[in-house]
Write a structure and sequence with these properties.
single chain; 403 residues; alpha+beta; Cytochrome Bc1 Complex, Chain A, domain 1; five-stranded mixed β-sheet; four-stranded antiparallel β-sheet; 47% helix; 17% strand
Length: 403
Protein backbone atom coordinates (compact mmCIF):
# COMPACT_ATOMS: atom_id res chain seq x y z
CA UNK A 1 0.00 0.00 0.00
CA UNK A 2 2.56 2.61 -1.17
CA UNK A 3 0.18 5.54 -0.71
CA UNK A 4 -0.23 4.94 3.05
CA UNK A 5 1.81 6.42 5.91
CA UNK A 6 1.11 3.69 8.47
CA UNK A 7 1.96 0.03 8.70
CA UNK A 8 -0.22 -2.57 10.43
CA UNK A 9 1.32 -5.75 11.77
CA UNK A 10 -0.60 -8.79 12.98
CA UNK A 11 0.80 -11.88 14.65
CA UNK A 12 -1.95 -14.46 14.14
CA UNK A 13 -2.39 -17.90 15.71
CA UNK A 14 -4.82 -20.51 14.42
CA UNK A 15 -6.25 -21.28 17.84
CA UNK A 16 -9.24 -19.89 19.73
CA UNK A 17 -12.02 -20.79 22.09
CA UNK A 18 -13.24 -23.89 20.25
CA UNK A 19 -9.85 -25.58 20.68
CA UNK A 20 -10.12 -25.59 24.47
CA UNK A 21 -11.14 -28.64 26.52
CA UNK A 22 -13.92 -27.74 28.93
CA UNK A 23 -11.69 -27.49 32.06
CA UNK A 24 -9.54 -24.96 30.17
CA UNK A 25 -12.44 -22.86 28.90
CA UNK A 26 -11.14 -19.31 28.52
CA UNK A 27 -7.48 -20.33 28.17
CA UNK A 28 -6.87 -18.67 24.79
CA UNK A 29 -8.39 -15.39 25.98
CA UNK A 30 -6.44 -15.70 29.26
CA UNK A 31 -3.19 -16.13 27.30
CA UNK A 32 -4.06 -13.10 25.18
CA UNK A 33 -4.13 -11.05 28.39
CA UNK A 34 -1.01 -12.60 29.92
CA UNK A 35 1.18 -11.86 26.90
CA UNK A 36 0.78 -8.14 27.63
CA UNK A 37 1.98 -8.47 31.23
CA UNK A 38 5.72 -8.50 30.68
CA UNK A 39 8.67 -10.27 29.09
CA UNK A 40 12.29 -10.88 30.07
CA UNK A 41 13.24 -7.41 28.83
CA UNK A 42 10.03 -5.36 29.11
CA UNK A 43 7.49 -4.72 31.84
CA UNK A 44 3.81 -4.41 30.99
CA UNK A 45 4.16 -0.63 31.00
CA UNK A 46 7.24 -0.77 28.78
CA UNK A 47 5.39 -2.96 26.26
CA UNK A 48 2.65 -0.37 25.83
CA UNK A 49 5.10 2.55 25.91
CA UNK A 50 7.25 0.95 23.19
CA UNK A 51 4.32 1.29 20.78
CA UNK A 52 2.18 4.11 22.16
CA UNK A 53 5.28 6.17 22.94
CA UNK A 54 6.01 6.41 19.21
CA UNK A 55 2.42 7.29 18.30
CA UNK A 56 1.26 3.75 17.66
CA UNK A 57 -1.55 1.44 18.70
CA UNK A 58 -1.29 -2.03 20.26
CA UNK A 59 -4.05 -4.54 20.99
CA UNK A 60 -5.23 -8.15 20.59
CA UNK A 61 -8.40 -10.17 20.17
CA UNK A 62 -9.51 -13.76 20.56
CA UNK A 63 -12.22 -15.46 18.51
CA UNK A 64 -13.58 -18.98 18.32
CA UNK A 65 -10.94 -20.06 15.80
CA UNK A 66 -7.98 -17.68 16.03
CA UNK A 67 -6.11 -15.13 18.11
CA UNK A 68 -4.41 -11.98 16.83
CA UNK A 69 -1.86 -9.66 18.45
CA UNK A 70 -1.63 -6.50 16.37
CA UNK A 71 -0.02 -3.08 16.25
CA UNK A 72 -0.09 -0.06 13.97
CA UNK A 73 2.20 2.96 13.65
CA UNK A 74 4.06 5.09 11.13
CA UNK A 75 5.98 2.90 8.70
CA UNK A 76 9.29 4.21 10.06
CA UNK A 77 8.45 2.33 13.28
CA UNK A 78 7.91 -1.03 11.60
CA UNK A 79 10.99 -2.57 13.22
CA UNK A 80 9.78 -1.45 16.66
CA UNK A 81 6.35 -3.02 16.15
CA UNK A 82 7.83 -6.34 15.07
CA UNK A 83 10.25 -6.35 17.97
CA UNK A 84 7.52 -5.74 20.55
CA UNK A 85 5.04 -8.27 19.12
CA UNK A 86 7.66 -11.01 18.76
CA UNK A 87 9.03 -10.28 22.23
CA UNK A 88 5.54 -10.68 23.71
CA UNK A 89 4.94 -13.85 21.76
CA UNK A 90 8.24 -15.58 22.46
CA UNK A 91 9.40 -14.22 25.80
CA UNK A 92 6.37 -13.64 28.01
CA UNK A 93 7.14 -14.53 31.63
CA UNK A 94 3.76 -15.97 32.61
CA UNK A 95 4.55 -14.66 36.08
CA UNK A 96 2.43 -16.30 38.81
CA UNK A 97 1.71 -12.87 40.26
CA UNK A 98 0.59 -11.52 36.88
CA UNK A 99 -1.61 -14.56 36.27
CA UNK A 100 -3.24 -14.07 39.66
CA UNK A 101 -4.00 -10.41 38.93
CA UNK A 102 -5.15 -11.02 35.38
CA UNK A 103 -7.53 -13.72 36.56
CA UNK A 104 -9.34 -11.02 38.57
CA UNK A 105 -9.22 -8.59 35.64
CA UNK A 106 -10.97 -11.12 33.39
CA UNK A 107 -13.57 -11.78 36.07
CA UNK A 108 -14.33 -8.07 36.00
CA UNK A 109 -14.58 -8.27 32.21
CA UNK A 110 -17.11 -11.10 32.57
CA UNK A 111 -19.08 -9.06 35.12
CA UNK A 112 -19.06 -6.06 32.77
CA UNK A 113 -20.54 -8.10 29.90
CA UNK A 114 -23.18 -9.62 32.17
CA UNK A 115 -24.24 -6.11 33.17
CA UNK A 116 -24.79 -5.32 29.48
CA UNK A 117 -27.79 -7.39 28.35
CA UNK A 118 -27.23 -6.48 24.69
CA UNK A 119 -23.84 -8.22 24.95
CA UNK A 120 -24.69 -11.03 27.34
CA UNK A 121 -27.66 -12.21 25.27
CA UNK A 122 -25.22 -13.32 22.55
CA UNK A 123 -23.38 -15.58 24.99
CA UNK A 124 -26.74 -17.14 25.81
CA UNK A 125 -27.48 -17.54 22.11
CA UNK A 126 -24.19 -19.37 21.50
CA UNK A 127 -25.02 -21.78 24.32
CA UNK A 128 -28.36 -22.38 22.63
CA UNK A 129 -27.00 -22.76 19.10
CA UNK A 130 -24.16 -25.08 20.10
CA UNK A 131 -25.09 -26.80 23.39
CA UNK A 132 -22.45 -28.97 25.08
CA UNK A 133 -19.84 -27.86 22.57
CA UNK A 134 -16.85 -25.49 22.83
CA UNK A 135 -18.55 -23.04 20.45
CA UNK A 136 -21.33 -22.68 23.01
CA UNK A 137 -18.97 -21.53 25.76
CA UNK A 138 -18.02 -17.91 26.39
CA UNK A 139 -14.57 -16.97 25.09
CA UNK A 140 -13.76 -15.46 28.48
CA UNK A 141 -14.43 -18.72 30.30
CA UNK A 142 -16.27 -18.61 33.61
CA UNK A 143 -15.29 -17.69 37.14
CA UNK A 144 -15.04 -21.41 37.90
CA UNK A 145 -12.76 -22.30 34.99
CA UNK A 146 -10.61 -19.23 35.57
CA UNK A 147 -10.12 -20.19 39.21
CA UNK A 148 -9.19 -23.76 38.28
CA UNK A 149 -6.75 -23.07 35.44
CA UNK A 150 -3.21 -23.45 36.76
CA UNK A 151 -0.14 -21.68 35.41
CA UNK A 152 1.30 -25.00 34.22
CA UNK A 153 -1.88 -25.66 32.21
CA UNK A 154 -1.78 -22.23 30.60
CA UNK A 155 1.86 -22.74 29.66
CA UNK A 156 1.20 -26.20 28.26
CA UNK A 157 -1.71 -24.93 26.16
CA UNK A 158 0.44 -22.05 24.93
CA UNK A 159 3.50 -24.13 24.10
CA UNK A 160 1.44 -26.77 22.30
CA UNK A 161 -0.72 -24.51 20.17
CA UNK A 162 1.20 -21.27 19.64
CA UNK A 163 3.84 -22.90 17.44
CA UNK A 164 5.42 -21.99 14.10
CA UNK A 165 3.16 -24.09 11.82
CA UNK A 166 0.13 -22.45 13.41
CA UNK A 167 1.46 -18.89 13.39
CA UNK A 168 1.12 -16.24 10.71
CA UNK A 169 2.72 -12.80 10.44
CA UNK A 170 0.77 -10.31 8.33
CA UNK A 171 1.97 -6.85 7.33
CA UNK A 172 0.05 -4.20 5.40
CA UNK A 173 1.47 -0.79 4.52
CA UNK A 174 4.03 1.00 2.32
CA UNK A 175 6.56 -1.83 2.47
CA UNK A 176 7.68 -4.42 -0.05
CA UNK A 177 7.76 -8.11 0.81
CA UNK A 178 11.55 -8.24 0.69
CA UNK A 179 11.81 -5.38 3.22
CA UNK A 180 9.53 -7.25 5.61
CA UNK A 181 11.54 -10.46 5.25
CA UNK A 182 14.79 -8.67 6.09
CA UNK A 183 13.35 -7.45 9.40
CA UNK A 184 11.56 -10.69 10.29
CA UNK A 185 14.37 -13.06 9.30
CA UNK A 186 16.31 -12.64 12.54
CA UNK A 187 13.27 -13.79 14.57
CA UNK A 188 12.04 -16.65 12.39
CA UNK A 189 14.16 -19.41 13.89
CA UNK A 190 13.04 -18.61 17.42
CA UNK A 191 9.45 -19.77 16.96
CA UNK A 192 8.71 -23.18 18.46
CA UNK A 193 8.22 -26.19 16.18
CA UNK A 194 4.98 -28.10 16.52
CA UNK A 195 1.81 -28.87 14.59
CA UNK A 196 -1.58 -27.37 13.98
CA UNK A 197 -4.18 -28.35 16.60
CA UNK A 198 -7.52 -30.02 15.91
CA UNK A 199 -10.97 -29.14 17.24
CA UNK A 200 -14.19 -31.00 17.98
CA UNK A 201 -16.54 -30.70 14.97
CA UNK A 202 -20.10 -29.51 15.41
CA UNK A 203 -22.64 -32.33 15.48
CA UNK A 204 -25.73 -30.56 16.81
CA UNK A 205 -29.05 -31.58 15.24
CA UNK A 206 -32.24 -29.59 15.61
CA UNK A 207 -35.83 -30.35 14.64
CA UNK A 208 -37.80 -27.49 16.23
CA UNK A 209 -37.29 -23.92 17.47
CA UNK A 210 -35.39 -23.56 20.74
CA UNK A 211 -35.93 -20.74 23.27
CA UNK A 212 -33.50 -19.80 26.03
CA UNK A 213 -34.91 -17.35 28.61
CA UNK A 214 -32.71 -15.59 31.16
CA UNK A 215 -34.91 -13.84 33.70
CA UNK A 216 -33.49 -10.51 34.86
CA UNK A 217 -34.97 -7.17 35.85
CA UNK A 218 -34.08 -4.73 33.09
CA UNK A 219 -35.54 -1.73 31.28
CA UNK A 220 -35.68 -3.63 28.00
CA UNK A 221 -36.11 -7.15 26.71
CA UNK A 222 -33.02 -8.04 24.70
CA UNK A 223 -33.37 -10.68 22.02
CA UNK A 224 -30.92 -12.53 19.80
CA UNK A 225 -32.53 -14.83 17.25
CA UNK A 226 -29.93 -17.17 15.79
CA UNK A 227 -30.50 -18.98 12.50
CA UNK A 228 -28.31 -22.04 12.17
CA UNK A 229 -26.49 -21.63 8.84
CA UNK A 230 -23.63 -23.02 6.75
CA UNK A 231 -19.85 -22.98 7.01
CA UNK A 232 -17.49 -20.54 5.33
CA UNK A 233 -16.76 -23.19 2.69
CA UNK A 234 -20.38 -23.38 1.51
CA UNK A 235 -21.22 -21.50 -1.69
CA UNK A 236 -24.55 -20.43 -0.22
CA UNK A 237 -22.74 -18.10 2.16
CA UNK A 238 -22.67 -15.38 -0.53
CA UNK A 239 -26.46 -15.46 -0.82
CA UNK A 240 -26.70 -15.36 2.99
CA UNK A 241 -24.43 -12.31 3.07
CA UNK A 242 -26.83 -10.50 0.76
CA UNK A 243 -29.88 -11.80 2.65
CA UNK A 244 -28.36 -10.43 5.84
CA UNK A 245 -28.21 -6.98 4.24
CA UNK A 246 -31.84 -7.27 3.21
CA UNK A 247 -32.97 -8.46 6.64
CA UNK A 248 -31.25 -6.10 9.03
CA UNK A 249 -27.66 -5.00 8.33
CA UNK A 250 -28.41 -1.39 7.40
CA UNK A 251 -30.81 1.48 8.02
CA UNK A 252 -32.59 0.65 4.76
CA UNK A 253 -33.00 -3.03 5.65
CA UNK A 254 -36.45 -4.54 6.13
CA UNK A 255 -36.38 -5.02 9.89
CA UNK A 256 -34.89 -1.59 10.59
CA UNK A 257 -37.54 0.05 8.46
CA UNK A 258 -40.44 -1.93 9.91
CA UNK A 259 -39.49 -2.36 13.58
CA UNK A 260 -37.96 1.07 14.08
CA UNK A 261 -39.14 3.46 11.39
CA UNK A 262 -42.70 2.21 10.82
CA UNK A 263 -43.68 0.67 14.17
CA UNK A 264 -41.36 2.41 16.63
CA UNK A 265 -40.77 -0.86 18.47
CA UNK A 266 -36.98 -0.66 18.81
CA UNK A 267 -34.09 1.76 18.86
CA UNK A 268 -31.46 -0.90 18.21
CA UNK A 269 -32.26 -3.60 15.66
CA UNK A 270 -29.76 -5.27 13.36
CA UNK A 271 -28.65 -8.56 11.90
CA UNK A 272 -25.17 -10.06 11.56
CA UNK A 273 -23.48 -13.18 10.24
CA UNK A 274 -20.69 -15.56 11.26
CA UNK A 275 -19.25 -18.34 9.13
CA UNK A 276 -16.92 -20.82 10.83
CA UNK A 277 -14.99 -23.86 9.62
CA UNK A 278 -17.90 -26.30 9.87
CA UNK A 279 -20.95 -24.25 10.81
CA UNK A 280 -22.34 -20.74 10.87
CA UNK A 281 -25.17 -18.51 12.01
CA UNK A 282 -27.11 -15.43 11.10
CA UNK A 283 -28.31 -13.44 14.10
CA UNK A 284 -31.11 -10.89 14.45
CA UNK A 285 -30.77 -8.67 17.53
CA UNK A 286 -33.04 -6.06 19.08
CA UNK A 287 -33.85 -4.24 22.29
CA UNK A 288 -37.59 -4.02 22.93
CA UNK A 289 -40.17 -2.83 25.40
CA UNK A 290 -41.29 -5.87 27.38
CA UNK A 291 -44.81 -5.62 26.03
CA UNK A 292 -43.69 -5.50 22.40
CA UNK A 293 -41.77 -8.78 22.36
CA UNK A 294 -44.41 -10.99 20.75
CA UNK A 295 -45.41 -8.30 18.25
CA UNK A 296 -41.77 -7.88 17.17
CA UNK A 297 -41.22 -11.63 16.88
CA UNK A 298 -44.29 -11.97 14.64
CA UNK A 299 -42.87 -9.31 12.33
CA UNK A 300 -39.43 -10.96 12.24
CA UNK A 301 -40.90 -14.37 11.50
CA UNK A 302 -43.16 -12.89 8.84
CA UNK A 303 -40.20 -11.34 7.03
CA UNK A 304 -38.11 -14.51 7.21
CA UNK A 305 -40.98 -16.60 5.92
CA UNK A 306 -41.68 -14.06 3.18
CA UNK A 307 -38.12 -14.26 1.89
CA UNK A 308 -38.45 -18.02 1.52
CA UNK A 309 -41.83 -17.80 -0.23
CA UNK A 310 -41.57 -14.75 -2.49
CA UNK A 311 -38.62 -13.74 -4.70
CA UNK A 312 -36.80 -10.55 -3.84
CA UNK A 313 -37.26 -7.83 -6.44
CA UNK A 314 -34.37 -6.95 -8.71
CA UNK A 315 -34.08 -3.46 -7.25
CA UNK A 316 -33.86 -4.68 -3.66
CA UNK A 317 -31.32 -7.31 -4.68
CA UNK A 318 -29.17 -4.73 -6.46
CA UNK A 319 -29.23 -2.34 -3.51
CA UNK A 320 -28.38 -5.07 -1.00
CA UNK A 321 -25.62 -6.47 -3.17
CA UNK A 322 -24.13 -3.02 -3.73
CA UNK A 323 -24.32 -2.31 -0.02
CA UNK A 324 -22.37 -5.46 0.91
CA UNK A 325 -19.74 -4.83 -1.76
CA UNK A 326 -19.51 -1.13 -0.93
CA UNK A 327 -19.08 -1.77 2.79
CA UNK A 328 -16.34 -4.29 2.04
CA UNK A 329 -14.51 -1.77 -0.15
CA UNK A 330 -14.85 1.02 2.41
CA UNK A 331 -13.64 -1.23 5.21
CA UNK A 332 -10.49 -2.13 3.27
CA UNK A 333 -9.19 1.42 2.97
CA UNK A 334 -6.94 1.26 6.06
CA UNK A 335 -3.77 -0.73 6.65
CA UNK A 336 -5.31 -2.40 9.69
CA UNK A 337 -8.36 -3.64 7.77
CA UNK A 338 -6.15 -5.00 4.98
CA UNK A 339 -4.06 -6.80 7.59
CA UNK A 340 -7.22 -8.32 9.09
CA UNK A 341 -8.50 -9.40 5.66
CA UNK A 342 -5.24 -11.18 4.86
CA UNK A 343 -4.94 -12.86 8.26
CA UNK A 344 -8.49 -14.15 8.33
CA UNK A 345 -8.29 -15.27 4.69
CA UNK A 346 -5.09 -17.29 5.04
CA UNK A 347 -6.10 -18.94 8.32
CA UNK A 348 -9.60 -19.72 7.04
CA UNK A 349 -8.81 -20.87 3.50
CA UNK A 350 -5.06 -21.47 3.40
CA UNK A 351 -4.73 -18.81 0.70
CA UNK A 352 -5.47 -15.17 0.03
CA UNK A 353 -9.02 -14.70 -1.19
CA UNK A 354 -8.78 -11.32 -2.88
CA UNK A 355 -11.46 -8.64 -2.48
CA UNK A 356 -11.95 -8.84 -6.25
CA UNK A 357 -12.83 -12.54 -5.97
CA UNK A 358 -15.28 -11.88 -3.13
CA UNK A 359 -16.81 -8.99 -5.09
CA UNK A 360 -17.24 -11.22 -8.13
CA UNK A 361 -18.99 -13.95 -6.12
CA UNK A 362 -21.32 -11.44 -4.47
CA UNK A 363 -22.09 -9.81 -7.82
CA UNK A 364 -23.28 -13.18 -9.12
CA UNK A 365 -25.91 -13.66 -6.41
CA UNK A 366 -29.34 -13.88 -8.06
CA UNK A 367 -32.92 -13.61 -6.86
CA UNK A 368 -33.31 -17.37 -7.28
CA UNK A 369 -30.13 -17.91 -5.25
CA UNK A 370 -31.52 -15.72 -2.47
CA UNK A 371 -34.83 -17.56 -2.41
CA UNK A 372 -33.07 -20.94 -2.43
CA UNK A 373 -30.89 -19.96 0.55
CA UNK A 374 -33.88 -18.50 2.40
CA UNK A 375 -35.88 -21.68 1.84
CA UNK A 376 -33.00 -23.76 3.13
CA UNK A 377 -32.06 -21.73 6.21
CA UNK A 378 -35.07 -19.61 7.19
CA UNK A 379 -36.92 -22.56 8.69
CA UNK A 380 -38.37 -23.08 12.20
CA UNK A 381 -36.09 -26.08 12.70
CA UNK A 382 -33.08 -23.74 12.47
CA UNK A 383 -34.30 -20.97 14.80
CA UNK A 384 -32.82 -20.38 18.26
CA UNK A 385 -34.02 -17.51 20.43
CA UNK A 386 -32.12 -16.18 23.42
CA UNK A 387 -33.65 -13.39 25.45
CA UNK A 388 -33.01 -11.46 28.64
CA UNK A 389 -36.26 -10.25 30.15
CA UNK A 390 -38.10 -9.83 33.46
CA UNK A 391 -40.61 -12.45 32.29
CA UNK A 392 -40.34 -15.71 34.19
CA UNK A 393 -41.86 -18.10 31.66
CA UNK A 394 -41.32 -18.70 27.98
CA UNK A 395 -45.05 -18.73 27.25
CA UNK A 396 -45.95 -18.87 23.56
CA UNK A 397 -42.55 -17.89 22.19
CA UNK A 398 -41.76 -21.30 20.69
CA UNK A 399 -45.13 -21.31 18.95
CA UNK A 400 -44.43 -17.90 17.40
CA UNK A 401 -41.23 -19.25 15.87
CA UNK A 402 -42.91 -22.35 14.41
CA UNK A 403 -44.77 -21.27 11.30
Amino acid sequence: MPHMASVAVGLWVGVGGRYEPEPLSGAAHFIEHVLFKGTEKRTAKEISEAVEGVGGYLNAFTTEEHTCFHARAHVSRFGDLIDVLVDMFLNSRFSPADILKERDVIKEEIAMYRDQPAQFVHDLLHETLWPNHPLGRALTGTEKTLDNIRRSELLAFFQTNYAAPNTLLVVAGPLRHAEVLRVVKKFAGKFRPGRKPAFVPVGTKQSAPVVRLHTKQAEQTQIALGIRACSRHDERRFALRVLNAIVGESMSSRLFQILREDKGLAYSVYSSWAFLEDTGAMTISAGLDHGDLEKALRIIVRELRGLSEKPVGNGELRRARDFVIGQMELNLESTESQMNWLGESILAYGKIVTPAEAKDRLSNVTTSGLRGAAREFFQPSRLNLALISPREKEGRLSELLAW
